[in-house]
Amino acid sequence: MPPRAHTLADADRAVAWLRVEAGRELRVARHAAGATMAAVGLRLGWSKSKVSRIERGLSPRVTVADIARCAAVVGLRASLKLFPSGRALRDIRQVQLLAALNARMHSMWRSTQEVPVPIPGDLRAADQVSELPGCRLMIEAYCRFSDWQLQTRAARLKQRDLGATRLLLLLEDTLTNRQAVAAAGEDTLRSFPVSQRAMLAALGGGRDPGGDGIVFLRRLAVASGAERVAVAPGDTKVERAAPPTSLVASAATQRV
After folding, report:
1. Which domains does the chain have, with CATH numbers?
2. Overall pTM > 0.70
3. What are the pLDDT digits (tens) for 172-182?
């Protein structure tokens, strides 16, 4: 099947799944509210059969507006979120940023990139998960970090759903990114107490960093053969070969 057709087929399946899930949540909320389908339909100016079809996921032409209005009647608020699909690492800058970190990590770490969240229908994926016995570190790489609350919350939710024991925010070392982190104030130390120096030392030594942290790095201009990527269905495993010293990104050592 051509790539475009395959993508559209995936989209159709996702829509069908969302329709069924939304209907299930509407039905549960209606029961909790003690309302009948007829009462909901009367409030919306719909027939009872239309409400029934929506709740059973059998209304292929149901609109977002229909779901939002029905949700409001049964005490819910509809929300729509969009997630990347396919390869999460679609930007060469992000690839280079992860390469800079992987060049500093001890070979004891077993790293997998683009790790999908193990929830049916969920299209989120972690940029990288690196593991040691007793430590599962999730790494989220950002070339542009602009919203502390939104981006850290998204990372925390992925960390939870992937069962990661540690979280590392890997940020490109730019003035914009440093200002965004600084603007968060003391929350950075409360949420990410491990300093950059300690985090890099633990990663380089093949040790559990003991907590979450933030690391600023410059992107690594990977030379041919320095980073080999073997693609398997659903993931990307990283094999590291030591790059020339001149290529290794310099890291700011100040505490974030």
Report:
1. 3-73 (1.10.260.40), 92-247 (3.40.1350)
2. no
3. 999 999 999 99
